[in-house]
Amino acid sequence: MLDSAVGLLGDLDTLVPILQESGVRHGGYGTEPRHYAMVGQSLMKTLSAGLGDKLTPEATKAWLAVYAVMQHVMLEAQDTPEGQRLFAAYQRRVKAAAAPALPTADQAALVQNTWAEAKKLGLNTVGNLFYKTMFTDFPELPETLFKGVNMAEQQAKLMGMLDSAVGLLGDLDTLVPILQESGVRHGGYGTEPR
Question: Any residues with CB less than 8 A from the CB of 162 and at least 6 apart, and which?
Fold first, then answer.
């Protein structure tokens, strides 16, 4: 690709559509703008290491200018509807590949049994302990994600949701849509994967 692009620098009418097509394809690879900067930095370090003094300051400036245009054309193409469609398809593939295996019947039973023991402490006690632990581990959360949240209500909602989810571990056809709906709602709360 790079060799072809350099060879076509004198024929932009041919080069630009090739770069655009490549940019669209890169959407399907999950390429993000930051990746182009990484590639550019690595390219310049490679040229510098390989060419030494032959890579003059003027040549460096020329390479940076050419790479900046290549990056710009490819990113614009990636931002087209087709590029975005391919990027979304990539993200779906990654999520599907990263999906954990469903729990076995034995695992579900073990979780349900230990949850039954935890419930003997009282859902309020378990909820208090959960949020105390989480806020100790992540002290920024009370002032970010949970700022202005009625924690007593939040705690009751979470414990109720967890209790329902554990109870439905043997009925994934019912549980999965409930969890998906909850995931959609949490997106609206500003919840992030981390």
Answer: 115
